[in-house]
């Protein structure tokens, strides 16, 4: 099991947001069992009140053209990556099969468990992977544990930490900070969860400001990742 307080021991590298602009602290990698975190900030740094709902032009996920197969062109690399982000490692995808990643929701309230199921379906549009919301991870699976934290959140509404072998992610934990998320709109909360699950699937922050994998998300963020994220997954996992 992951230790819920894992982000505090071993002085892990931390990706933290503060206020409107998320800052990134690049972490030093020391080989195995590295713990890192990534986060999305709360609603534009204005957690108490702030803009609330009904922002026009957002909130309706739109279909995204996704690659037809998990086959990367020769020399394909990830695109539009925020250079300030510290990279997350990929899972070890079995050749010729989709990568299966389980997201355990047994510790979540119904609202957030529902968003995890939605986000899993969104990311599973990728031909490279199958993201599945489960009650408890099956033995030996690629497992991401989701948990809630009702404490103060340093202007963060989500955080992801992981252990890796140096080359591959081995397990991960996503912490949802319910103080800001309980006030977020459904759209905003879903965007946060899609964002953190994107990290847990191997994606780094994007430069595109409106994309859900940008370092800043809020209630107006379209929770559906843009096509570049899906081509990046092919670049990461494609054969
Ligand atoms: Zn992030």
Automatic annotation (TrEMBL):
What are the start and end residues of every segment in region (Disordered)? 43-67
By what name is this protein known? Peptidase M10 metallopeptidase domain-containing protein
Q: Where is the Peptidase M10 metallopeptidase domain?
A: 155-220
UniProt cross-references to InterPro entries, sorted A to Z: MetalloPept_cat_dom_sf (IPR024079), Pept_M10_metallopeptidase (IPR001818)
The yes or no answer to whether the keyword Metal-binding is present is: yes
Q: Where are the transmembrane segments?
A: none
Upper taxonomic lineage: Bacteria, Bacillati, Actinomycetota, Actinomycetes, Micrococcales
Q: Where is the composition biased (Low complexity)?
A: 53-63
Q: Which Gene3D superfamilies match?
A: Collagenase (Catalytic Domain)
Looking up Pfam families in the UniProt record yields: Peptidase_M10
Protein keywords = Hydrolase, Metal-binding, Protease, Zinc
Is this entry keyworded Kinase? no
Domain of life of the organism encoding this protein? Bacteria
